[in-house]
Each structure stands twice: as C-alpha cells, then as structure tokens.
Amino acid sequence: MPVRVFIHGLESSSQGNKGVFFRERYPDMIIEDFEGPLEQRMDKLNDILKDKEDLIIVGSSFGGLMAALYAFRNRAKVRKLILLAPALDLEDFDPCLSDRLDIPVVIFHGKNDDVVPVAEVKNRAARVFSNLEYHLVDDDHPLRKTFTTYDWEELLRP
Is this model's pTM higher than 0.85 or not? Predict the structure, then answer.
C-alpha cells in the first residue's frame, strides 16, 4: 500500500479546505503543518518521510513546489505526484530545469489563477516531467470549484 502525503500551500495549513477534505476521506494520509522558509519546510518534510517509501504526494501551490523538489531529490521513494497549481515558477525550482523526472505527474491548474502563472508553470512542467498529465481547469488558484470533483480514488491509486 502506498504512503499518501498532502502538502499544503504557503499561507494555508493542515486545517485548510484541502487538508480537511483529505483527512476526512483518507485517514491514513500524512497531513502536517509546515511553517517558515522553504528549507525549513523541506527539512521537516524530509524528517517526516525519512523512513517512508512508495510515496504518492499531493502538493498544493507552494506545497506543489515542495513535492516536486522532494521527488527530484528522492526519486526512488516517490511513486507519483499530484500537483495543484504548483509554484514551479519560483527560482527555487530552477535547478530542476536541467533534469528530467519520469514518474507519473498529474497537474491541475486553474486558468484564472492570479497567484501562480499558468503558462510558465505549464512550460516548466513539460520540460522536466516526462510522464506528465496536465489539466487546465476553469477555476482560480485554490481550485475552489473543481478540487472536490477530481477522481481522487483514481488519482491516489498507484
């Protein structure tokens, strides 16, 4: 059985809409709070997942950046990424642009996102993820309208 993980965005928490959604439906899912700068958050994530393998990681916004960075740094441990409006436009992701990751990656991004630039993220994702499934949806940055409509049973299946 894979280990499922959810990583919230920069200004969210494990008690945000997505964290609550996953906690109610997937009680075994690892859902933690992350605070501080990126490296502090990554250190906590590394500590939480140090003895875990066969990971399916869902990352939202800044948590999507964290999930992608973790996968690039821990390829053998990650089975699949599901990224929700991931902040792959930030310079922290730049070192990954000269690399490729071949695990399945699913991205959902709202075409009305006013926080994370859609075109730049799509281009960067296509450049680095060789097994990418990209969905541009009629929604905003938090994916308020569409998030609960995704087939999470299928998405979280290995």
Answer: yes
